[in-house]
Design brief:
By secondary structure, this protein is of the alpha/beta class. It has two domains: 132 residues, HAD superfamily/HAD-like (Rossmann fold, 3-Layer(aba) Sandwich); 109 residues, HAD superfamily/HAD-like (Rossmann fold). It contains eleven helices and 15 strands. α2 runs parallel beside α11.
């Protein structure tokens, strides 16, 4: 008789593509989580398409790609997607060549610049949007200017709603903390580009040419990875190597299709399903 976990994992035999979170799922800070290389070997050997999709706007696509392949994992730059990319595409379509005030780092700056957006500092003229990502050099001045631009009519955009970010030192503040401060100051809610919003999931599936019913979302956060995958119509897998675990499910009321301890357990269960 199969175990309850094996029964819950029966959907894996029909999965043809994956959206995969990065921080807390594949990496923790500058460290690879156990089974990283073997996990990608399994996906490649079985022809399962994938997009590694991060809500971290601080790093460029190339930086994330180089960071992962440095551990020996086999993937291309085309397999990488971040909330910065999604944000830039949204702005490019809505405000082509427009002006933005940015709180963020190189990953967001590069994506916006490549999309043809003009990044404005201070209060030097009106801007179309205020774009907020993770910023490790956040200052009161940045918050002040962002708040004033929003109050003057600029669209308020957040790359992701994550309050915390898993590092090798522990959980540290992320973009969501800044969004809360600005929402409190302006009484305006931000439009979220990254997970759990569908923008990132739909773009990932479009790149892979797949439908939701044949796609699974793998991640360590219930409110973003799992809930976002569910909104997009995907199967969802929570891995307990980052922010959330089995006890979080009860507290947050978000139920993934499958919960695994780590990547090696997922690969083992998947192999069993494939026979």
């Amino acid at each position: 008789m199969r175990s309850p976990k094996a029964q819950a994992a029966s959907f894996l035999k029909d999965i043809r593509a994956m959206m995969i979170d990065i921080d807390g799922t594949l990496l923790r800070g500058n460290l690879a989580l156990p089974g990283l290389v073997e996990f990608f070997d399994f996906l490649n050997q079985h022809g399962i398409q994938f997009q590694v999709a991060s809500n971290n706007a601080t790093k460029t696509l190339s930086a994330y790609h180089q960071k992962i392949i440095a551990f020996g994992a086999q993937l291309s730059l085309e397999n990488v997607l971040t909330c910065s990319t999604v944000t830039a595409l949204y702005l490019q379509e809505k405000y082509p060549g427009g002006k933005v005030f940015m709180i963020g780092q190189s990953g967001l700056d590069e994506a916006l610049t490549q999309a043809g957006m003009q990044i404005i500092s201070g209060l030097s003229g009106e801007v179309d949007a205020v774009v907020v990502g993770g910023d490790y050099s956040l200052t009161y001045e940045k918050l002040k200017y962002a708040s004033l631009h929003i109050q003057r009519g600029a669209e308020f955009i957040g790359t992701n709603p994550d309050l915390l970010f898993p590092t090798d030192e522990g959980l540290v503040p992320e973009c969501g903390m800044t969004l809360v401060a600005l929402e409190t100051a302006t009484q305006i809610k931000p439009v979220i580009m990254g997970k759990p919003n569908r923008f990132m999931f739909d773009l990932g599936m479009k790149k892979m040419g797949v439908q939701p019913h044949e796609t699974a979302m793998l991640g360590d956060r219930l409110e973003t990875d799992i809930q976002g995958g569910q909104i997009a119509g995907m199967k969802t897998i929570l891995v307990e190597t980052g922010v959330d675990n089995q006890s979080s499910i009860v507290n947050k009321g978000i139920q993934p299709d499958l919960v695994v301890q780590d990547l090696p357990e997922l690969v083992e269960i998947w192999k069993e399903q494939l026979g």
